[in-house]
Design brief:
The chain has helices at 3-11, 32-42, 62-68, 122-125, 140-150, 165-173, 175-184, 186-208, 234-240, 242-255, 273-279, 296-303, 318-321, 323-337, 357-370, and strands at residues 49-50, 59-60, 72-75, 86-87, 93-94, 100-104, 107-112, 154-157, 217-221, 260-265, 283-286, 308-311, 343-344. A hairpin with a 2-residue loop joins strand 6 and strand 7. It has a single domain, classed as TIM Barrel. The strands form 3 sheets. The protein has a 7-stranded parallel β-sheet. The protein has a 4-stranded antiparallel β-sheet with strand order 4-5-6-7, with no helix packed on it. By secondary structure, the protein is α/β, with parallel strands linked by helices. Helix 7 (175-184) crosses helix 8, helix 10 packs parallel to helix 11 and helix 14 runs parallel beside helix 15. It has 15 helices and 13 strands.
Amino acid sequence: MNSRQRVQQALQHKQADRVPIDLWGSDSRITNELYFRIKKHLGLQGLGQKIRPGKSAEYVDYRISDHIGADFRHAVVRQPKNFTSYIDKNGHTIDEWGIGYKRIGKYTQISYHPLADAEIEDIDRHRWPEVEDPGRLEGLEKEVSGWHQNTDFSITAATPISGVIIEFYQYLRGMENFFIDLYYHVKFAEKLIYTIAEKVTEFYMYFLKPIGRYLDWIEFASDFGTQENAFMSRALFRKFLKKPMANIFENIKSAYPGPKIFLHSCGSVRELIPEFIDMGVDILSALQPLASNMDPFELKKEFGKDLVFHGGADIQRSLTAGKKEAVEEAKRKIEAFGPGGGYIAGPSNHFQSDTSVEAFFAYYDATSKYGRYPLKMP
């Protein structure tokens, strides 16, 4: 069985020859410091493709994917031709949304929110990105069609923008303002939410136009949880976010009915999972295992008929502890999510610098070893 067949079996909640393995998707990349150590360990010359300049996980290098037996290639949007980020007088690097960033320690942080002091009429006046910039698609169709014709990898679309509604609202206006607006500036909140949803839809529709027919799934990344709880109550989620999120997914599915909808969300989101399913989510990723109420065995039992599970390997403790713990983590996630199919193995978020090279490979080696059907856990 080849990679594409293996993944498609998992997406149909069926057992293949083994659990599919992912790397380099929207939430399964490797941060730069660890990437350089892995590359050195393998003796690889040169660098992979630099797809996210200025981010903490900038590269994609499929030589590592091939070494661990990963089953995927991920289509990534290109950089726009008609906009170049710039540094303003206060030292913020300004992106095409008008959002400012600064490098703080190892990570790039948002440092300027262009709509922080906005009134409702300022939303339409804001300089929104030029979605149909030809640079975003440069070489994309050739690359993806080549993967489809010349390899047997499963192909997905990685997120073309960093977030969905809740993220861009906070990027543009600030987290504190986001929550205040939901209670005290409802008309403003609704206006900005639906404007963002429209822009998100435009980005995805443009990105998918040359490649949609080749894809097994389309990735979205939106964090709805903290370590202990969801960011908001289920009632508030239903009032403000469920419909516009569902509209985005429905528009995408109407245009491209074949690929599944993949949603990454960090944190404790168990109470929102029924809403995700109702919105049209097919694949749930992150599955942050140390977050409250995110036990993998319970998630599989409660939602396994409706969702394919992706990722879930603990990068907070297990993969930072060492080889032995990485192996046990691989076994635990396969034991929880693997029975009956419907599971793709990978981390619960990008591999960070505190994961050792040895633990990284131990995790994937153990996944390959213990993820073969019929499952036999020692």
